[in-house]
Amino acid sequence: MRIGLILTLAITVIGSAHGGTVTGTITFSDPPPTMKQIDTSADPACAAMHGSDPLVNEALVLGEGQTMGNILVRIVSGLPDKDFPVPTEPVVMTQEGCHFTPRVAAVMKGQTLRVLNPDGIMHNVNGVPRENRPFNRAMPKNITELDVAFDKTEDAFMLRCDIHPWMRGYVAVVDHPFFVVTKKDGVYKIEDLPAGEYEIQVWHEKLKEQTQKITVPADGEVKLDFSYAMPKRN
Ligand SMILES: [Cu+2]
């Protein structure tokens, strides 16, 4: 009986160490624009990879119910001022099929961003950060992997491939682990937050950012949805 009691107590303590959760869905509220097909004919190798299913502009990626993919969701203020452990696993983006996948990613400061080129053709990775050091590396077909890391936090900046001008990727550098990039289902979940008041921000490459205040209770879950609309033309 004694052992049973001790186990129960241990589980309770682990449970409370998990902290609070903030979760929600990001949707697009307007009729979606038709995204243009990309003309990849400048590189027949890219065109051949897509055949009858050509690439389209991925600046707006919607799921069922107009949920939005490629939204970076992160806590932007309220966290304790401390160093959070940096994952040893890299964040991986690939240039496979002549487009960046995922198109949007975030890494922690000091964490490796690994860009793969499995296409067997020439790409390059031209990163144009403002805070961190810019980088521009050729990815000939025999270089299938490029590792980069960043020593300053930075809002999302663009990655390009100059050989295929339609290729676009975005990378943000964060100094904590409380961020996520949505898949097509538009759902985000940020867990293990200490109880407290925060600002949470969503970012889209064209529709920019929205910030909201939230209060996260210990062990509780806060639900907060966001919605984007087409920008108003003046
Ligand atoms: Cu390329």
Q: Identify every distinct bound molecule in the structure, by name, code or SMILES.
A: copper (II) ion
Q: Trace the largest sheet across and list its strands.
A: 4-10-9-6-7
The beta-strand count equals 16
- Give the helix tally: 2
Biggest sheet character? 5 strands, mixed
Which class of the domain at 1-29 and 66-79 and 179-234 in CATH terms? Answer: Mainly Beta
Order of helices and strands: HEHEEEEEEEEEEEEEEE
CATH homologous superfamily identity of the domain at 1-29 and 66-79 and 179-234: Immunoglobulins
Distance between the amino and carboxyl termini: 72 Å
Fraction in beta strands: 35-45%
CATH architecture of the domain at 1-29 and 66-79 and 179-234: Sandwich
Query: Which shape, going by the Cα principal axes?
Result: globular
- Computed over alpha carbons, the radius of gyration is 20 Å
Detailed description of the structure:
The structure is a single chain. It contains two helices and 16 strands. It is mainly beta and 234 residues long. It has a domain at 1-29 and 66-79 and 179-234: Immunoglobulins (Immunoglobulin-like), CATH 2.60.40. The chain has a five-stranded mixed beta sheet, with no helix packed on it. Strands 1, 12, 15 and 16 form a four-stranded mixed beta sheet that branches. A four-stranded antiparallel beta sheet has the order 11-2-13-14, with no helix packed on it. β9 (154-160) and β10 form a beta hairpin. The structure holds copper (II) ion (CU). Copper (II) ion binds at residues 95, 98, 123, 161, 163-164, 167.
